[in-house]
Amino acid sequence: xxxxDYKDPxxxxxxxxxxxxxxxxxxxxxxxxxxxxxxTLAMELSINPNTIQKAYMELERRGFIYSVKxxxxxVAGNDSLVIRHRQDCLKRLGDLASEALEYGVTKKEMIETIxxxxxxxx
Amino acid sequence: xxxxDYKDPxxxxxxxxxxxxxxxxxxxxxxxxxxxxxxTLAMELSINPNTIQKAYMELERRGFIYSVKxxxxxVAGNDSLVIRHRQDCLKRLGDLASEALEYGVTKKEMIETIxxxxxxxx
DNA sequence: TAACTGTACTATCATGAATAATACAGTTAG
DNA sequence: CTAACTGTATTATTCATGATAGTACAGTTA
Lengths: 122, 122
Hints:
Largest interface: A-B, 32 and 32 residues
Shape of chain A: elongated
Strand content of chain A: 5-15%
CATH superfamily of the largest domain in chain A: Winged helix-like DNA-binding domain superfamily/Winged helix DNA-binding domain
Oligomer: homodimer
CATH topology of the largest domain in chain A: Arc Repressor Mutant, subunit A
CATH class of the largest domain in chain A: Mainly Alpha
């Protein structure tokens, strides 16, 4: 479910955070799904529990999960998260396109690039 | 010409590198323009000469400038760099669009976003 | 020749990521 | 009830990286 890439320059806690956010946003993890415990996941990934704790705190701060002392951490309802993320994707795309325009890339080229994308190539 | 943003999480040498790359790619610095010397620029920015040295080494590695011991560093010819950067922009845009597709953003939304961009809004 | 250039090297410091080891409080299955 | 699990918090240590500081050497130029 989670893989750590030690060639990735990003810190481990960030990779874990992003990976779970991705799974939740793509609907791979249902609402109220019980997340692996901090200690269990740390064991599985052969890393320190504090690193997982940091990732879970960040996921909770961003609304992806909720944690209950003694019970565990669970996936939060994700409808508004999905909507927010789509808006964020569009914003990032617009920003990147604006930048590309400044470097001389044309809107036509960009639109053609998007139209050429094969759907479902994950 | 160069400004350091201490709120930017990126290291200083990277900010300097990216800023010069931007100036060169946008044609603000002509070929063979003499770059400020390592020590001069360090003085101006109130940072360490080694930090500028690192930025210039990176700029040279990426083909933006060339350095001559005793004479200085100079902007390299930038035609192929510009072409390469436009291709890179398009690739990044395509990658981001592919990712957005996986999160449920439609091509139509993306294309509309691009079409709405006001040109020359830098 | 003096003052400038790039380049290289070593040492030091601050910061953040990660580890390590506890500790405490709440939950739950046996 | 209790043992074993949960999340959470805290402190100390290690390590890598960015940045600073100081020095040195080689080449250029007015």
